[in-house]
Design brief:
The structure holds two protein chains of two kinds.
Chain A lengths: L3 H10 L2 H7 L7 H9 L10 E3 H4 L1 H4 L2 H20 L8 H11 L4 H29 L7 H23 L4 H14 L6 H9 L6 H32 L18
Helix pairs in contact in A: 6-8, 7-8, 8-9, 9-10, 9-12
Chain B lengths: L21 E2 L7 E2 L6 E3 H26 L24 H9 L2 H18 L17 H21 L3 H19 L6 H6 L3 H22 L17
Antiparallel strand pairs in B: 1-2
Helix pairs in contact in B: 2-3, 2-7, 4-5, 5-7
Classes of the chains: A mainly alpha, B mainly alpha.
């Protein structure tokens, strides 16, 4: 039933301005719905059609989507936090106090970013295990599994570099404990640790390095790999779903 | 015949998609690529669902973030070491390993091997069809499995690594009871159909979860055992 609102929307979609922005009129045929996806920069890495089975919640629990959506949320809350943050000692810690007592909704902003980060680590792990049990790594999806492992690493490093930024006791000692492990690497251990920290202890240089990694290098890497990951899902023929029928022809549904 | 679950606008331009009949990879038998069901248009079917998922996620996160504050301790002080000094939760499994094994083994060797193992999973083309572990030569395989498990348990016992022994033993009990089981239905019958890769991954996940939970909640000063509900100094 076309309500007045829907009718108005429909009219809007036939205007020249709308067409100039979206490169199409209303998406009311499969042709225009296809153009809506592959003719749009932000959607073009999606397939034009998806298997009905892969849309079911139990197919993947939307774990990959959730991980990506969390990444987007972390970028948004992270950029907002950057407005209030100086990667220096002891300004970093003071900025945390400012978030707590001065900035409107500062605590909420920090809570969202921290919660999102923990959830993302959790969901990326869960996503990987779920894909394994589904056999999603099997041909032709081999390389996308490898990209996924890289994304897991990037996620862990993103979370870990962010852990240092509040510059409180929790952050300092967590990173000290973690980076001490690097020195156990044979021969080059101490050198690698020196490069990672910009010194022999976790200090101001380490804070700056972790900050740059956290807000520039690792997000860019994540963005790159996520792009490849999604694109490969489409090129490799969509999510792995169970066949409708068994080999003996019995219907599973 | 294409059938859409969600009716959206006109059903025009409906076209049958080509179907792959057979799918043959090296070292495997010809496998019928079965019909994996109809396809729907991404716009709007997938996009609507993604939007719903995003909204649910945001609502849940906002509710949690309103009431659960991020911790903030004292200003970092290199001269004041907390006891225990803990890494973020996802590295506490590693820290628990460090308690048992030398730093090189726990901190470098094991993570590197785990990472390599994860990367080679799709290229490790053994049993691509996912045949159950007990399908062929069950007696011989059970012998090997028991020998491997016992060696592993003895090795772990030498290092006193009992937080690894517990999940390893638990998964072993399930594995061996699936061998013994004659059941044709129920959870043991399901386990009996699992391939070796399933068992290895399940063992890995069980161990990782056990180590992480113990490291997070049950480790106190000097990495000693504590109860999360008990009172302790520090």
């Amino acid at each position: 039933m076309p309500t007045p609102f829907n009718a108005a929307l429909e009219d809007l979609r036939t205007t020249r301005v709308w067409k100039s922005i979206f490169r199409r009129g209303p998406a009311n045929s499969n042709r225009t719905r296809s153009i809506a996806v592959f003719g749009n920069l932000f959607l073009h890495w999606l397939p034009v059609k998806v298997r009905e089975k892969s849309l079911r919640v139990r197919a993947a629990y939307y774990l990959g989507s959730l991980s990506f959506l969390l990444f987007i949320m972390l970028v948004v809350t992270g950029v907002l936090l950057m407005f209030y943050y100086h990667p220096a000692v002891p300004n970093a810690y003071r900025d945390m106090k400012d978030l707590q007592f001065v900035v409107s909704n500062g605590v909420f902003l920090r809570n969202m970013h921290r919660l999102g980060a923990h959830l993302m680590v959790l969901l990326v792990f869960w996503h990987m295990f779920h894909v394994f049990y589904r056999g999603g790594y099997k041909p032709p999806h081999e390389f996308n599994w490898v990209i996924g492992v890289l994304l897991l690493l990037v996620t862990l490093f993103l979370s870990y570099t962010g852990y240092l930024l509040p510059w409180d006791q929790l952050a300092f000692w967590a990173v000290t404990v973690g980076t001490n492990i690097i020195s156990a690497m044979p021969v080059i251990g101490r050198k690698v640790r020196f490069v990672a920290l910009g010194g022999n202890i976790v200090g101001e240089n380490a804070l700056l390095r972790f900050y740059v990694l956290h807000v520039v290098i690792l997000p860019l890497l994540a963005f790159l790999f996520i792009g490849v990951h999604f694109w490969r899902v489409q090129k490799d023929g969509g999510l792995t779903v169970r066949p409708t029928r068994d080999e003996d022809g019995t219907n599973k549904d | 015949m294409e059938q859409t679950k969600i009716e959206a606008g006109f059903q025009s331009d409906a076209k049958k998609e080509p179907r792959r009949i057979v799918f043959i990879t090296r070292n495997t038998s010809a496998k019928v690529q079965d019909d994996r069901g109809p396809k729907l248009m991404t716009y709007p079917n997938l996009l609507v669902r993604e939007a719903i998922v995003f909204e649910v996620l945001v609502v849940i996160m906002v509710l949690i973030a309103l009431f659960w504050d991020a911790p903030l301790e004292q200003l970092a002080n290199p001269l004041l070491t907390p006891n225990p000094a803990k890494a973020p939760w996802y590295f506490l499994g590693l820290q628990e390993l460090l308690h048992f094994f030398p730093p090189f083994v726990a901190g470098i060797l094991i993570p590197t091997l785990v990472l390599l193992a994860l990367v080679v999973i799709p290229y490790f083309k053994v049993n691509v069809e996912g045949k159950p572990l007990w399908e062929e030569h069950p007696k011989k395989r059970a012998g090997i499995v028991v020998a491997v498990i016992l060696t592993l348990l003895v090795l772990l016992a030498v290092f006193d690594a009992w937080t690894i022994i517990v999940p390893t033993a638990a998964v072993s009990v399930l594995l061996l009871s699936s061998y013994q089981s004659k059941a044709s239905r129920g959870w043991l019958a399901v386990l009996r159909r699992k391939p070796l890769s399933w068992w290895i991954m399940t063992w890995f996940i069980a161990t990782a979860i056990c180590l992480t939970v113990v490291g997070t909640f049950f480790r106190g000063p000097g990495w000693s055992w504590i109860w999360p509900w008990g009172t302790h100094a520090g």
